[in-house]
Specification:
This protein is mainly β. About 5% of the residues lie in helices and about 55% in strands. It has one domain.
Length: about 150
């Protein structure tokens, strides 16, 4: 049985965190009015999930004069979907700002936001929206293969 300890800003602080994602973030330079000269790292607990993965591919090839196709390069990126539970719009504004930082750490790995943070209204008359954003693994998740140039 879970015991509710505190409740604030639509975030329940409970003893278990099944649908919550701990994100740590920082920046190389001062950003959004925050002084990062002391190498400050902030943490935020997001209500949602962060486990669905996909591989994004980009391939480039060319056709030689004899009609044979030659692969010039290929890149594969590992991405994971951050799904945010319905929340007020000011929470999504905060999340967008957090995901603009240089350094984002979730589950012990570094991520970068390359795609849009998209919100979806819960329903008519509701001041809440859910959100999704694909984050790209910053290191060890991108593989590039270059065979040559034309």
């Amino acid at each position: 049985m879970e015991t509710l300890v505190l409740y604030s800003d639509c975030i329940s602080v409970e003893t278990s965190h099944d649908d919550e994602v701990l994100a740590k973030y920082s920046n190389k330079y001062n950003f959004a009015g925050i002084d990062y000269t002391a190498n400050t790292v902030f943490e935020v607990l997001l209500e949602g999930r962060f486990f669905r993965e996909r591989q994004q591919e980009q391939n480039e090839s060319d056709t030689e004069s004899d009609g044979n196709a030659v692969k010039l390069s290929s890149t594969t990126k590992t991405q994971r979907l951050l799904e945010v539970e319905p929340a007020p719009y000011y929470i999504h504004e905060r999340n967008r700002l957090i995901l603009q930082h240089n350094y984002i750490f979730i589950d012990g790995e570094e991520w970068i936001k390359e795609e849009a943070y998209e919100t979806k209204d819960v329903g008519k008359g509701s001041a809440l929206a859910s959100a999704t954003v694909w984050l790209t693994r910053k290191s060890g998740g991108t593989f590039t293969n270059v065979y040559g140039t034309v």
